[in-house]
Automatic annotation (TrEMBL):
Family as reported in the entry's similarity comment: Belongs to the AAA ATPase family. BCS1 subfamily.
Catalytic reactions of this protein: ATP + H2O = ADP + phosphate + H(+)
Name this polypeptide is given: AAA+ ATPase domain-containing protein
Keywords of this entry: ATP-binding, Hydrolase, Magnesium, Nucleotide-binding
Native organism: Chenopodium quinoa (Quinoa)
Cofactor(s) needed for function: Mg(2+)
Length: 474
């Protein structure tokens, strides 16, 4: 009888709940119902959480209004990919170049267990889609990813101090060990293969054998440049002390074929930096230029080659308005209008990056985005550049690369022919002093064209090439 009475009461209680729910959904507007539900859920969750012995820490993927990818998120992602991939049931896989290695990572909403000093913790990779109605400049960037760490409250100090320090050190060590340097180029906006975010950069694996040892350049100049670069890479505290962003500008100038591009590669190999090859003609405007800067990584080189040809940065663009003022006959006006219209259409497709926008990227407010960066400009004609662009403080080091001298030739001869002295060296020295030949042409003449050619043949080829250049100058 008591049991029947209990069931009757429980049934009446459920019926009352169903009645209240029906009235709630029928008479309250959706917006009110949604707000009340959110409030109830929050308080119920807080109430139940007060009885839970577990704590949670969330690490978001992006910080600072989504401009910067969180370093903590990246390190945790690297650590979990290495340490827990064998324990996870659902993984994301990706092949690196040539398909030699499979890179594994946690799938979205997958949970794994890690253990530290006998204590178990739970990691979960979560992805959610924001319902915000705001407009974001990054298409598809409303997807939010984070890592959720769960642990027992009695181990709070161990996890927040010792364990997180261990994660930081291990993640950085794994990153250093597996780091694959990349060569980037800017493209039309595309979706990243691994991150799922839209990006303006595309990349390939960067492997190039050029070093300062193989660079055909006088030893004194070579040592000066190398010392400056190494000093820069170790100067974080110094730049913080003087209140300047940790960056440095290099201007490489000189005739074609004198080794400007090769020097950039040698710099990247010396410092182990990534290279971002920025093609300004592909950049729509100053806003897109800032986005490109934001998406570059630390420990990188931003390169703008042949900057005198990339954009008209001297303020000498022809004015369409002035052309429209030219007096023409009535018969010619229609033709002129058509020509001007066609030219305006072509002009509208060109990059709208301005000199002030580029200067702001180099040493303005936006130059403080990121750190440990080199900005390198190259040009064949330094006299064509606006002085505001290349003054000291923006381009801190000016390096002139000249035609091949005898000291440069000796480096090239040693690299290409494994020879440090030869009877023809004196002849070549005299010819180099009387002629102008760039290091690229010297190297081409030193390179054996067949298996039958020996050192004597290659050096004689160079002598003949230099004598021909000498005759052409005369």
């Amino acid at each position: 009888m008591n049991t029947n009475h209990l069931f009757i009461k429980f049934g009446s209680f459920l019926a009352s709940i169903m009645f209240v729910k029906a009235m709630y959904e029928q008479y309250l507007p959706y917006r009110w119902r949604n707000s009340i539900s959110s409030i109830l859920y929050r308080y119920i969750y807080q109430f139940l959480s007060s009885f839970s012995p577990y704590h949670h820490i969330t690490f978001e993927e992006f910080t600072g209004e989504r401009f910067n990818r969180s370093e903590a998120f990246t390190i945790i992602e690297t650590y979990l990919s290495e340490k827990t991939s064998e324990k996870a049931r659902r993984l994301k896989g990706n092949f690196v170049k040539d398909g030699k290695d499979l890179v594994l990572g946690l799938a979205d909403n997958e949970e794994v267990i890690d253990e530290y000093e006998g204590v178990k913790v739970w990691w979960k990779c979560r992805r959610s889609v924001s319902r915000s109605q705001s407009i974001n400049i990054y298409p598809g960037s409303n997807d939010k990813r984070n890592f959720k760490l769960t642990f027992h409250s009695r181990y709070r100090d161990l996890i927040t101090k010792s364990y997180m320090t261990y994660i930081l050190e291990e993640g950085k060590a794994i990153t250093t060990r597996k780091r694959q340097r990349k060569l980037f180029t800017n493209v039309k906006e595309q979706k990243g293969a691994t991150s799922g975010r839209w990006t303006l950069w595309s990349h390939v694996e960067f492997k190039h054998p050029a070093t300062f040892d193989t660079l055909g350049m006088a030893e004194a100049k070579k040592n000066y440049i190398m010392n400056d670069l190494v000093r820069f890479s170790n100067s974080k505290d110094y730049y913080d002390k003087i209140g300047k962003p940790w960056k440095r500008g290099y201007l490489l100038y000189g005739p074609p074929g004198t080794g400007k591009s090769t020097m950039i590669v040698a710099i990247a190999n010396l410092l182990e930096y990534d290279i971002y090859d920025l093609e300004l003609t592909m950049v729509a405007d100053n806003t897109q230029l800032r986005r490109l800067l934001i998406e570059t990584s630390n420990k990188s080189i931003i390169v703008i080659e042949d900057i005198d040809c990339s954009l008209d940065l001297t303020g000498q663009r022809s004015s369409m308005k002035e052309e429209k003022k030219v007096k023409t006959s009535e018969d010619e006006k229609d033709k002129v209008k058509k020509v001007l219209k066609d030219r305006e259409q072509v002009e509208s497709k060109k990059s709208q990056v301005t000199l002030s926008g580029l200067l702001n990227m180099i040493d303005g407010i936006w130059s403080a985005v990121g750190e440990e960066r080199l900005i390198i400009f190259t040009t064949n004609y330094i006299e064509k550049l606006d002085q505001a662009l290349i003054r000291r403080g923006r381009m801190d080091v000016h390096i002139e690369l000249l035609y091949c001298c005898f000291e440069s030739f000796k480096v090239l001869a040693n690299n290409y022919l494994d020879v440090k002295s030869h009877p023809l060296f004196e002849t070549i020295k005299g010819l180099l002093e009387e002629t102008k030949m760039n290091p690229a042409d010297v190297a081409e003449n030193l390179m054996p064209k067949s298996l039958e050619l020996d050192v004597d043949d290659c050096l004689e080829n160079l002598v003949k090439a230099l004598e021909k250049v000498k005759l052409d100058y005369q």
